[in-house]
Amino acid sequence: MARVDTLCRKNARILVVDDERVSLILMERLLQAAGYSNIVLIQDPYEFMATYEAAPADLILLDIEMPGLSGFDLIEQLAARQDPLTPPILVLTSLRTRDCRIRALEAGASDFIGKPFDQAEVAARVRNMLDVQLAHRMAHDQKDVLERLVYERTRQISETRLQVVQRLGRAAEYRDNETGQHILRMSHTSTLLAQHLGWDAERCEIMLHASPMHDLGKIGIPDSILLKPGALTPEEWQIMQTHSTIGGDILGGDDSELLQLAREIALAHHEKWDGNGYPLGLTGEDIPESGRIVALADVFDALTSVRPYKAAWEVEAALEWMRGQSGKHFDPRIMAVFLELVPEILAIRERFADPPV
């Protein structure tokens, strides 16, 4: 248990509740003689809760027999608050029956002492109860500090991890897109689609950060193929297709939701609704929805962007071609949502436009 120093104990806030003024004055003098200075006297029990809520107390000395609200009532009010650090209650009363003592202790009192009381005994019990309460408070505060430190450290690790995976996505994109703006457009478009398809906010946030790694496997494709200005040969195209599985292999083996979704997207975003995609030739809803979403966002941005092997398409030409691919390349349901969101998608395109050459 944490050690309580004398100064801390002497500054402890003690509430004394008794309807008799003389008893309050006597208790105040006793506590002052013992070295305590932060003493609050309450004669009207109806003022107790307001005084208690105004500032935390470290100990409560409580009379039982009071008009209107008894000490039992005040103990019950305190218990109902369910405070994590309810102060100990030392009951002071002339009632000496066993039933009274048991009722007070069962209600939540920490100790019981009868009137008239021995001053030395009261001082000793006050000291002991304060030591225990202040030690609990110190331990509680240390726990809060530790929890904040753990939370902050976890947040820093999470942010660092996120930055690493974002840079991985950009590293792959720089292989065939100098600005890296494609992944920003594609990831924000994918997230917009996910929102309108009913994904919750947390999963949409993961989509925003996972989708930039969709083409991570490109780092394993030779430049002679990746940057080739003309059409690929059948052999080169087979090699190019392996970037999906390369990306899946790189992103595999981690249990975080972020990397699991990133791997799913890397493997599925080149699958086609009619089964003519790769690497597994999945059809329809067997293709993970994340892959079907990213497929649309990725293809639209690729068509309307300059690549080493082609010029940028006009937006209307790209949309017309994509409409024709609904039910073939693309999920018809997601295609319909995509078309409804074209104005917002074009705003994303403008927001993350490639800088002029």
Task: Spell out the blueprint of helices and strands.
Blueprint: H1 6-10, E1 14-17, H2 21-33, E2 39-42, H3 48-54, E3 59-63, H4 71-81, E4 89-93, H5 98-107, E5 111-114, H6 119-173, H7 181-196, H8 201-210, H9 223-226, H10 234-241, H11 243-251, H12 257-268, H13 289-303, H14 315-324, H15 332-340, H16 342-351
Parallel strand pairs: 1-2, 1-3, 3-4, 4-5
Describe this structure in words.
- InterPro entries: CheY-like_superfamily, Cyclic_di-GMP/3'3'-cGAMP_PDE, HD/PDEase_dom, HD_GYP_dom, Sig_transdc_resp-reg_receiver.
- It holds the Pfam family Response_reg.
- GO terms for molecular function: phosphoric diester hydrolase activity.
- This is Response regulator.
- The chain has 16 helices and five strands.
- The mean pLDDT is 86.
- Helix 2 links the parallel strand 1 and strand 2.
- The protein has two domains: 135 residues, Response regulator (Rossmann fold, 3-Layer(aba) Sandwich); 178 residues, Hypothetical protein af1432, CATH 1.10.3210.
- 57% of the residues lie in helices and 6% in strands.
- With 357 residues, the chain is of the alpha/beta class.
